[in-house]
Design brief:
This protein starts with a strand and ends with a strand. The relative contact order is 0.09. The protein has 723 residues and is α+β, with helices and mostly antiparallel strands. Helix 3 runs parallel beside helix 4. The protein is built from 12 helices and 37 strands. The strands form 8 sheets. The protein has a 9-stranded antiparallel β-sheet. An 8-stranded parallel barrel has the order 20-21-22-25-26-27-28-29, surrounded by 4 helices. Strands 5, 10, 13, 16, 17 and 18 form a 6-stranded antiparallel β-sheet that branches. 19% of the residues lie in helices and 30% in strands. The protein binds (2R,3S,4R,5S)-2-(hydroxymethyl)piperidine-3,4,5-triol. (2R,3S,4R,5S)-2-(hydroxymethyl)piperidine-3,4,5-triol binds next to loops.
Length: 723
């Protein structure tokens, strides 16, 4: 049993394998968040309930009276707007009067084994009901009739807790949700650093760490998607926490649209963290009896440092988020046509790629952008998902047959949520793009966003996708999204529902993706948004891999892959060797081997020497496939901390083998490079397959290796295999 309710103390304790989370029900049924941290056996939090040492100016509840409790200073479990709690709130409900004061109090709860899916939205899952236990707490705002259900699931075998929220209108009048966050966590102190992932196109997910300060701080997206700029991830780490030591809390939102992840440090030097749909340009009209579901947050706590937090996320996402055939089945090793050909290809060129690729050991050819409508550049045809027969004479069949005849599988590119003004679809339906009345919508890469919040639009796109995918032998789909959403509006939404657009758009995307994966369960699905512009856990619920970045330079990729690994597993980071020439092919391969390995180049242009290197890489890829997918990642030298070298290690779950890679980004003249390893079995003797030297795990972790000679040239790298 992992969830306990002490009916005398009126307290819940939710335990995972290593953590406890305590919620108390105070007088007048206020719900208080009393503890989140390392596992504890008891829950005598009575003295933590009142936290107001006679604070002036803090409102008091008239029934409870002036004896030390105020919503202003109490650790409120799900902070509401305007009823004495002045911090950033998780919930604001407007009623028919126009009042926005919101105040929820405990009414009921349920505890059950397993975990329910969130309707129409992606969420993590249990493989069997024994894996987790769920607590649902109902709390009602008497005045508006909003009944909030706070949903917590704790996992028995890993330190993960998920949180999500449902709001039901139990009144007979319409209410308006101005904000519904998915998680709200109060911490007793502000002695934390906040860690976030910022970026931009071709420079995604840089790690940024800064101490919390009084006021509000955090990350958000207003781009309509999670975006390149900020990832829906935030960690709070004790100031002394390092990669290998100390208290760290991670929060990752399973959502692909506008989000907020904010921490506020108040006058008591306490911290509140909220995460969920960005309230900016959001409102949801809830008629009598209707329900609204907010997306899920995956919360991790560990006292073993930032690296351990990442490994917990990696294991959890591999086991409880990524799904479908390719969760476990080996994914075909692919070559993608984009950087090799851009829009300039025809059947013969692609079949020639396949022929050469086959000789190297590659298993699938992916035809990227440019196969449909009349598309020969990026100015047209999005929305016209029928074959460009000028380019691919006779349609897809002769091409796919040709590729299959060379022994390769075949994959295809789509950008379903977009429409080019120069397209048959736009000419037929000039109101199907995202826009607002009387404003000329902004363009992005010459395209508009297609209004997939509309069912008729989705139906059209789905029918087009279905025709191509059902009539042809297609093994893989890459789903791209190459601009952000401006002029947010849908021709169909009435004025009072305009602010529902952004969320409805994301629900529309999920609907399409869900149809794709359920109708075509054998297709390998790869997410993409101009590289990693929609790299979030929600996308992983549909696509087991995501194109990490359009930047395939191996040195730049080090930063991107290190940042991405903060919470996303190697199994989902698509990483390709391309023709870009800052380093040789060895280093390109060593870096790409970190993730879902592949190629993105014209295989006919490889020299004989490069060909041999690629063949050897592919042999290594097959050998290490399972290790990379299931292993534990240890970041040994981070490029964010060290301007010269980067290094990482992937250790098999049973610690019987591991691989280690060191990349010299920039040689540090006359310097030494000693590396200590992590996460090994101290008593096991490991043989280095590269030079047959034998070392104990204890030696490697405490003494390490002298790799000075491997780190003496810009762009040089080495991967060592131990077993
Ligand atoms: C952006 C993607 O990230 C690239 O890999 C490629 O698919 C292009 N779009 C095609 O337009």
């Amino acid at each position: 049993m992992s969830i306990f309710f002490d009916s005398d103390k009126r307290m819940f304790k939710l335990d995972t394998s290593e953590t406890s989370y305590v919620i108390g029900i105070y007088e007048e049924n206020y719900l208080l968040g009393l503890y989140y941290g390392a596992k504890i056996p008891d829950m005598n939090f009575t003295k933590f309930m009142k936290r107001n040492p006679s604070a002036s100016f803090s409102p008091v509840n008239p029934v409870i009276g002036e004896h030390g409790f105020s919503p202003d200073t109490a650790p409120i479990e799900y902070g509401c707007n305007g009823a004495g709690d002045f911090r950033i709130s998780a919930l604001a409900v407007r009623n028919a009067n126009g009042d926005t004061v919101t105040d929820i109090r405990y009414t009921d709860h349920r505890i059950y084994k397993g975990k329910k899916a969130i309707p129409n939205m992606p969420s993590t899952y249990v493989n069997s009901d024994d894996e987790a236990e769920t607590l649902e707490i109902d709390a009602v705002d008497k005045v508006t009739g909003a009944m909030v259900t706070l949903v917590y699931t704790v996992f028995e075998n890993c330190p993960v807790m998920t949180k999500s929220v449902k709001v039901k209108n139990t009144s007979d009048k319409t209410i308006y949700l101005e904000r519904v966050m998915s998680a709200c966590n109060d911490f007793y102190t502000m002695d934390y650093d906040i860690i976030t992932l910022w970026g931009r196109h071709v420079k995604e997910r840089n790690i940024e760490r800064r101490p919390l300060a009084h006021g509000v701080q955090g990350v958000e997206s207003k781009r309509g998607v999670s975006g390149h700029s900020q990832n829906p991830f935030v960690a709070l780490a004790k100031h002394d926490a390092t990669e290998d030591f100390g208290d760290v809390y991670g929060f990752n939102l399973v959502y692909s649209g506008n989000f907020s992840a904010l921490a506020e440090c108040d006058h008591n030097c306490s911290t509140r963290l909220i995460m969920g749909i960005n309230p900016n340009d959001f409102e949801w009209t809830l008629s009598a009896g209707e329900e609204f579901y907010a997306p899920e947050v995956v919360c991790v706590f560990t006292d073993k440092g930032i690296g351990e937090m990442s490994r917990i996320y990696h294991r959890f996402y591999n086991n409880n988020l990524i799904r479908g055939k390719y969760k476990t089945e080996k994914r075909p090793l692919l070559i993608n046509s984009w950087e090799a050909a851009y829009f300039d290809f025809d059947k013969d060129k692609l079949v020639a790629f396949a022929k050469e690729a086959k000789k190297l050991g590659i298993e699938m050819l992916v035809m990227d952008d440019g196969w449909f409508g009349k598309r020969n550049d990026d100015t047209n045809s999005l929305g016209d998902w029928f074959v460009n027969e000028e380019k691919l004479v006779g349609g897809l069949k002769p091409l796919i047959d040709g590729v299959n005849a060379e022994g390769l599988k075949f994959g295809i590119w789509y950008e379903p949520e977009m429409i080019s003004p120069d397209s048959e679809l736009f000419r037929a339906h000039p109101d199907w793009h995202v826009h607002v009345a009387n404003r000329e919508p902004m363009l992005g890469r010459h395209q508009y966003v297609l209004d997939v919040s509309r069912e008729d639009v989705r139906e059209n796109i789905w029918n087009q996708l279905y025709k191509v995918l059902s009539e042809n032998k297609i093994d893989y789909v890459k789903w791209d999204f190459n601009r952000n959403i401006a002029d947010a509006g849908s021709a169909l939404l009435p004025p009072e529902r305009k602010k529902e657009f952004f969320h409805r758009f994301i629900l529309g995307t999920y609907d399409l993706m869900n149809r794709l994966v359920t109708t075509f369960p054998d297709i390998l699905f790869e997410g993409c948004s101009g590289g990693g512009g929609r790299f979030d856990p929600a996308m992983l619920a549909y696509s087991p891999q995501i194109w990490t970045s359009d930047n395939t330079d191996p040195i730049e990729r080090l930063y991107i892959q290190f940042g991405t690994s903060m919470c996303y597993p190697a199994s989902c980071q698509s990483a390709h060797v391309s023709a870009c020439d800052r380093t040789g092919y060895e280093t390109k391969g060593n870096v790409a081997m970190w993730g879902t390995f592949g190629y993105e180049l014209d295989p006919r242009k490889l020299t004989d020497d490069e060909r041999e290197i690629v063949k050897a890489q592919i042999a290594e890829y097959h050998k290490t496939y399972k290790l990379v997918r299931d292993g534990d990642l240890y970041r040994i030298i981070s490029p964010f901390d060290n301007p010269f070298n980067a290094a990482w290690e992937i250790v098999a779950p049973d610690k019987q083998s591991f691989m280690f890679t060191l990349v010299c980004m920039r040689a540090n003249p006359n310097s030494l490079c000693f590396v200590k390893f992590k996460g090994l079995d101290p008593d096991k003797y490991y043989t280095c397959e590269n030079d047959s030297e034998v070392y104990s795990g204890a030696f490697l972790m405490n003494v390490g290796l002298n790799l000075t000679e491997k780190a003496n040239r810009d762009g040089k790298s080495i991967t060592l295999y131990f077993s």
